[in-house]
Every structure is written in C-alpha cells, then in structure tokens.
Amino acid sequence: DDGSRLWLKYDLLADVQQRDTYLKSTQFVAANSSHPTIKVAVQELEMGLKGLLGKAPVLVQTATKSGGIILNVAPNSPSTLPQDGFELFSEKGNIVISSKSEAGVLYGAFELLRYLQTGKSLTNLSVKSSPKIKLRMLNHWDNANGTVERGYAGSSMWKWTELPFRIDPRYITYARANASLGINATSINNVNASSRFLTEEYLEKIKAVADVLRPYGIKVFISVNFRSPRTLGGLKTSDPLDPEVRKWWNEKTKEIHRYIPDFGGYLVKANSEGEPGPQDYGRTHADGANMLAEAMRPFSGIVIWRAFVYNADPKGDRFKEGYAQFKPLDGIFDPKVIVQVKNGPIDFMPREPFHPMFGAFPKTTLGMEFQITQEYLGQSTHLTYLAPMFKECLDTDTYVKGKGTTVAKIVDGSAENHPLSLMAGVANTGSDANWCGHPFNQSNWYAFGRLAWDYTLSSEQIATEWTRMTLTQKPQSVQKITDIMLNSHPIYVSYTYPLGTSHMMGEGHHYGPEPWLTKAARPDWTSIYYHRADSIGLGFDRTGKVSNALQLYSPEVQQLWGNAEKCPLDYLLWFHHVPWTQKLSTGRSLWDELCHRYYDGVGQVGKLQSAWESVKSDVDKETFEDVKGRLKIQEKEALWWRDACVLYFGEFSKLPIPKPLVPPTRTLDDVKKLTEIYHLR
Ligand code: BDP
C-alpha cells in the first residue's frame, strides 16, 4: 500500500457477516438529480460500496423498493439545517441522505461510507450534521516553479506546466479527500505570492483546476501579490487609494470571473516578512483589504487578509504586533473581508497560547489559520498528531463574553454574530505517492478537515476513525495506534519545547534545534530573542514588568497565566522568566523539571516504537516499515534536541543534569556541529 488512496481505500471488509448485513441495505442508489455534484456522490458510493462490500449497488432514478440508498436534494425543505448540512436517516427500509444542497448530499454520502469504513451499524440511522464553520479551507504554499514553501512531501501537487491541457488524476483524489471531510475551499498558491498567478496564462490553468474541484463543492482562491498592479499592470504604483490601481484590481477581478464564475476570492499576505502591501504607500491593512473587497463587490467572493505581521524591533515583543497593527482597524474592514489569524501570536510553534486577537476584535470577522504542514512539528520525520493541539487552542476560553467564550466560538462567528466564518489549514500535500510524506501526516489533513466541520469532535474519535479507514480494522491495534497518536504531540513538545519555550529551531530551514542562535537577519529570527536564558533563569517575561503582552487578554486569562506560581506549566515560560532554582508545582526546580521533560520525551519515543512494533501483524507491510524507519529518525533527533537544549541551557544554569538522569555523552560543541551540517553549502 503506497498510501496514495489516503483514507478512501475502500478495501474489501474482512468480516463476511458484516458485509452481508451492509449489503442488505445498500442494494441500490436512487438519485433524482443529474447535477455534477450528485453524479460524483453516486460515483463515490458506487466505488466505495463495490470496494468495501464486493458488490456495486444498482443505480436507479427512484426507489421502488426497500434496501437501498436515496439521495435527496431538497432546497425547500423545512429542515433547520444550513445549506451544507445533511441528514442521514432510515425510512421505509431505505437509507435517505438529504440536504438542501448538492454538496450537503455529497457530504452525507461520505458520512455513510465512513460508517461502513469504521464498522458502524446502519440500522435506525438518525444523523443530523452541519458544519460549524462556513469556509473550511486549505491554504497551499505552492509556488509556480513546482516547489512548496515548507512542504515536506515532495514537490507541488499542481502541475502548472501541464495545465490546462493535462489533468492529473490526483486532482480528483484530492477533491474527493477534501469533500470527504467537508473542506469547501482551497487557495492554490503560496502566500508569498507570485503575480504570475494573475496572468492570463495562469488563469487558464487555475480555471482547469477549478473545473475539476467544482463538482466536489470546492471553491478556488488565489493568493495575490499586492504589487501586481505594478508588476503586471505596468502602473507606477500599487497604492490602494490610487484610482488607477483600484481600476486595475476591478478589471482583474472581472477577468478572473470570466474564467472562474464562482471564484472564491483573494488571500493576501501583505507587509509581512518582506512582502509588499499597503503600508509601502503609507496606507493601512484596511485600505488594502477594502480596495480588494470593492473589486469583489459584484461577485460572491471574499477577501482573506492575513494578520501575520511583525516588525523587526529588538526591544519590542513580536507577541503583540499583529494585535497592535490591527486593533485600530477593528470596525473598518469591509464586510467582505475576513482577517485570518494564526492560532498563536508568534508562528505555529508546537505549543502557543491562543492569539490575543481572538476575542479582542468584536467588529471584525476573524478566521483561524492552523498549520497542517509540520514546519515546526517534526516535518516529515516525526510522528505528531495535531488534533489535540488544534483543539487545545479552539477550546481555550477567552472569557471576553463571559465564561465559555472559547476561541472556537469567536471563530465560528457565534460569539459576535458574524455571518462569515473561516478555518484555514496550511496544506501538507505534495507529489509524494502518499501525499504527505510521513504516513501519519495524512491524519493531520484528516483531523483538520474534521475539526473545521465540527470542532467538538474529540481528538480520540478522529484518530480512531482515521486509523480504521487508513491502517487497520483490528480493534486492539486500532486502540494502540489511537494511543500512539494521542500521546504524540505531548511527546514531541517534551523533547523540543517543554514548559512553554519556543522558537529554538535551526535557522531558515527550521529543522532540528539551534537554541544558541544569536544572530540572524532579524533579531526576532534568533532563538535568544525568545528563550531569554541568562544566569538567573529562563523564559520571556510578558507580565507588566517587561513586555506586558498579557494585558492583551481578558482579565480572567491574565489571572490564569499572569501568576508564575499558578500558571499551567505548559505555558509557564511563555509568560515568565523563571529562576533556574525556582520550585515548580511538580516539586522540582525549573532546571530539574526542564531536564526531566527533555529526557522523558526521548524515553517516550522509545515507547512509541515498541507500540508500533506491536501492531506489525495488523498493518500493511510497506506502511509498517515506512513508519518504523521514520520512528528511528525521530528517536535520533529527539536525542539531538534533548542534548542540544540541556547542554546549552546548562551553560546558563551552571547546574548538573539531575540524577538519576544520565548526562549526554557528547559535548555542546558536538551537537552544535550537527546543527552546522544543516547550514553547509
Ligand atoms: C512562517 C514560515 C514562512 C511563511 C510564513 C507565513 O516559515 O515560510 O511564509 O510563516 O505564514 O512560519 O507567511
């Protein structure tokens, strides 16, 4: 199994009895619509049922008997479910999949298949499901030249040189996989955007992609370069208040709609990490976003404007910058604008407190941006299941409208009554046969999609589902693999960034540890900017004494995190500079606790390895060996992280590795050399 079929394998179910039971209620599929989306729903059921049960259903227009599946698009149904929602219920001996929209029926078809794939009963079905978030979106960071920014699974899945003439069959697999989760939007290119994507040449290519994705209910977005009016249009400026510039965007937007009538809209990274933007002309983010929203006014599309901005101020605190730049603009953005905010205030670190913008912008629609690609989370070599991390953020209480105003309630629009809502995930797809590099990285695409649909699903349920659909049906092994997945993120955090440390990765490529990084192109790209290790202790004091970033949160959150004695240890060094000898709630000193966590993390990787070994007979051989090999790399690199960090911080604490832990056998110089290798030209 090369993993190319993702979680839609549809291999014959081993249990004959179970197959017979399923066959009795899936003998035919009745669909009274020839809408392209219904066609793909029927196709999927046909393929899925044939694979899982060994027998394809008969396709009919109307059901004349019982024992089959009825697809029912009911735009005028009195159901209270939203457009995309669906019902799946048993009626007169048939299974009915009903929705106001074709896409909803497609989602219901995938849900039904998931029932079979995960061994659930089909009797007395009574499911109502609807998405909590309206726009459930992947953000590809794919470049026109085929490379992928922060991609760890080969090159781009989009074959720009072949398009629009050759349609890679993988686009369809991609569309099916997304639709199976309810993902309904994708932006196809890197946020560090090339204007090339707005040329006629590329619009034709993007149109071809949009045509493939449309039947699966997926809208296409384009990341745009703010300087395009100059680079493409030959204008002298890209100033958003310049009438010629506005005209250029109006025309360009119309042109795009001639290719893609249901174009999703623009995604913009502006005035961030060297990208152009309205501030180049003394204008604000709102000036830029609203100009694009105006161009989009005649159409259904929207503008997604990223809040990932920070200036290189060595005395400042990057934590506060997105908030500071956007706060004065709350209430000024056009209703067609969504401001897309990363889950945390820095940059996709393995554990971050939620971004303080969530809850502090009542008049602006804020979208969530998670990173599925594991730039800082082990890339393609560490097994790290991210649902618990996504959920930790979504479930955190902002308290802005009283207890229970979780980040999720801000993002779904319910706390502040916003009609739009967005959850975006930076995609981890590539040209690798298995799409995502590490076989388990597929589970993060899966988990992201499931949570964007319904963030109340548990990490465990999602892990179990994915495992059953992807790796094995054997209950014991399903349980073991689920446990591996659930433990994996805490383990990763232990041997990389325990106790709320952050941003100590190798410079530029972000692989492996480099806590000693002191000089970089910008002070806020070093490691010392973040960990602030000195002879006294470790951590970034964000209380009133120093940066006071804590003040950006509601009083309740400040209380929770603002007191070093009470702050949960997972967040401790995000907010406090703690003395090495300070006793923590665990009874250990900071230094001892830090060492124990690094050592424990490494030890736990050993446990992951033996747990994986124990499922050997129940998973595909190729996948088994693949994961086994990667776990060995993970073990080696966990040690690398541990030794780098305890040896380096030991230079500040001047304390020995606490017994019974055994000090590393190599020196700090040895580990530094390992890191240097990655910088060799
Ligand atoms: C950082 C990545 C960089 C991205 C940036 C972003 O290192 O490649 O361009 O995020 O989100 O984490 O724009």
From TrEMBL:
Active site residues per record: 273, 347, 375
Stored InterPro entries: A-glucoronidase_C_sf, GH, Glyco_hydro_67_aGlcAse, Glyco_hydro_67_aGlcAse_N, Glyco_hydro_67_C, Glyco_hydro_67_cat, Hex-like_dom2
The enzyme's E.C. designation: 3.2.1.131
One record GO biological process: xylan catabolic process
Native organism taxonomy: Bacteria, Pseudomonadati, Bacteroidota, Cytophagia, Cytophagales
Catalytic activity annotation: Hydrolysis of (1->2)-alpha-D-(4-O-methyl)glucuronosyl links in the main chain of hardwood xylans
UniProt family annotation: Belongs to the glycosyl hydrolase 67 family.
Protein name: Xylan alpha-1,2-glucuronidase
Quaternary context: Homodimer.
Presence of the UniProt keyword Disulfide bond in the record: no
Species the sequence originates in: Runella defluvii
